[in-house]
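Following up on my earlier thread - several people asked me to post the actual chain instead of describing it. Fair enough. Here it is, all 107 residues.
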Amino acid sequence: MKKIRLRMHLVFRWDLSPAMAIVAASHAGLGTYLTWESDPIMQEWQKTSFVKILHKALREDHWEFCKKLGEHKVFTESTLNGAETCLGFRVVERPTRLFDDIPLWSP
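Reply from S.P.:
Thanks for posting it. Predicted structure:
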């Protein structure tokens, strides 16, 4: 049986500047890991994969839809008056295929 490559999915708001997206990615990547660091799947991800997939929500309603895709943590940014900037999803062996329909982030 083929070993599953574990991935951490991060979803960014549609209206972040490239500079703010970099800040959000670093905060969310570390914050997501720390949130579930005692989980055996997260530990396996950290040891064998460390792959992060960066997605971009397209608009407000899409952002709210993304919040329903699985267990996640919402990250905010104090320099944006506490605005939500990124969703960090718990690493699971078989994430929903709906992540395939969310565009990848690009500047």
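The mean pLDDT is 94. That should answer part of your original question.
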